[in-house]
Amino acid sequence: MLDLLVVVAHPDDESFGTGGALLLAKEAGLRTGILTLTRGEAGRTLGLCPPEALPEVRTEELSRAAAILRVDFLEVLSFPNGLPQEAEEGERGKAQGEGLLDHPEAEDAIRKRLQALRPRFVVTFPPDGINGHPDHVAASRYVQGAARGLARVVYMVRPEGPYPPTHRLRLPEWALREKLRAIAQHRTQALSVLAFLERHPERLWTETFHVVGEAGLVEGPWW
């Protein structure tokens, strides 16, 4: 049985959006987990591996990050990783021309995990995917359907956006240090890391969440 399960589309989503929350929840004595719906095969390789090896490499990167985040459960599913239309050219893994939006059966897969793990809270993207990525949008849609009657849904959100934060976590130094170490494990996605640092540096030490059904803003965790 888990207290908090993070369900995201790709390896690395968990560290950017919820790394601090996972660490603080674990420090508070909660049982935590990560479920990714794809192996991130459409991501960049940066020449660190052949394109066909990227799913395995990204799974290994995620495993190292999850160990740093001290989660009790980790599972990686193999639904296809789609690409947003504006994706840059360059060396990437071998995408299949489809993505999570083409696989609504992922909702059933998530529901089975929720029934087995019985988390009190499931954390995922808001309906807009936080950045519009179609896989993020699909993950949010499927989690909302799968969690009905089973778990409370929590969105990881931008500080200012269509889903206003109900809870804000300001990470202590030790948690920020460990979150940065977890992000650093995703070496093949270093350009995404740099883009995040350039655009949203404040979201490294402050994480904001929207607990579905709640209003107002609390400085601290929802659990």
Structural account:
This protein is of the alpha/beta class and 223 residues long. It has one domain: 3-Layer(aba) Sandwich (Rossmann fold). The chain is 36% helix and 16% strand. It is built from 7 helices and 8 strands, in the order βαβαβαβαββαααββ. It has an 8-stranded mixed β-sheet with strand order 3-2-1-4-5-7-6-8, with helices on both faces. Strand 2, helix 2 and strand 3 form a beta-alpha-beta unit. Helix 1 packs antiparallel against helix 5, helix 2 packs antiparallel against helix 5 and helix 3 crosses helix 4. The two termini are 15 Å apart. It holds the Pfam family PIG-L. It comes from Thermus brockianus. InterPro entries: GlcNAc_PI_deacetylase-related (IPR003737), LmbE-like_dom_sf (IPR024078).
Quick overview of this protein structure:
The protein is 36% helix and 16% strand. The protein is an alpha/beta fold. It has one domain (4-219): Rossmann fold, CATH 3.40.50.10320.
Keywords:
223 residues; Rossmann fold; globular; 8 strands; single chain; alpha/beta; 16% strand; eight-stranded mixed sheet
> In terms of quaternary structure, what is this?
single chain
Helix percentage range: 25-40%
pLDDT < 50 stretches: none
Q: Give the structural class.
A: alpha/beta
Question: In order across it, which strands form the biggest sheet?
Answer: 3-2-1-4-5-7-6-8
Largest sheet: 8 strands, mixed
Order of helices and strands: EHEHEHEHEEHHHEE
Shape: globular
Number of domains: 1
Q: Rg to the nearest angstrom?
A: 16 Å
CATH topology, what is it called? Rossmann fold
CATH superfamily: LmbE-like
SS summary, helix count: 7
Strands, count: 8
Distance between the first and last residues' Cα? 15 Å
Strand content: 15-25%
Assign the CATH class: Alpha Beta
GO molecular function: hydrolase activity, acting on carbon-nitrogen (but not peptide) bonds, in linear amides
Biased composition (Basic and acidic residues): 90-104
Region (Disordered): 84-104
Pfam family, one: PIG-L
